[in-house]
Amino acid sequence: MGVRVGVLAIQGDVREHKNHLARAGATPVEVRTLNDLRSVQALIIPGGESTTIGMLMAEEGLIDAVQARVNNEQFPVYGTCAGLILLARDVVGSSPARIGVMDITADRNAYGRQLASFETKLRISVFHDEPEFPAVFIRAPRITRYGPGVTPLATYEGHVVMAEQGSLLVSAFHPEMSGDARIHQYFVDKLRKTLKV
Fold it and tell me: What is any one of the record's Gene Ontology cellular component terms (predicted)?
């Protein structure tokens, strides 16, 4: 049985994230409640509308619970698009209720509205043999500042769009919308190393 990785099932491409996790050898679990969160060893926060996701997480007590697990256990969390905003310590402009555990500043909707969505190839530094990754940007944020403990992993037009800090991973794009599961595999492999399994 694989490591249990939760996918926050409030909004976004939950099924697609679960499919990629299964391809990476993990056991995907939908997370909606505190009990669901307690049952997993890591969490993915999908894209969607960050204000709505943050509000619903706060109502369920999930924001405080994720903060506590990150701070006390180095709980691995991967935030994609809106998930990046929710993990960011600071947000440009209006600021939704968020987890705020990663030392980055996020600029919401930096790449425009839904109609401005696009796909591009990114060079991701941790992929050495085949660094290019098909990245889908939909109402995407970008990272405008990052602290000394944050490692940029990919940039687009000079701006950081993927980064990690300890057990935390974020991307401004939607890896689950491509057929490429390498980022999910990277996240799962990091989890296995942390757990020594």
Answer: cytosol
Of these residues, 81, 130, 132, 157, which one is catalytic?
81
176 is catalytic: yes
3-state secondary structure of 108: coil
- The rounded distance, in Å, linking the Cα atoms of 135 and 69 is 29
Give the active site residue among 17, 20, 174, 184.
174
Task: Give the residue extent of every domain in the chain.
Answer: 4-195
Query: 93 in helix, strand or coil?
Result: coil
**pLDDT tens column, 163-181:** 999 999 999 999 999 999 9
CATH 3.40.50.2020 fits 4-195, yes or no: no
> Is there a catalytic annotation at residue 174?
yes
Report which DSSP code applies to 117: -
Output phi, psi for 146, to 5 deg. -140, 145
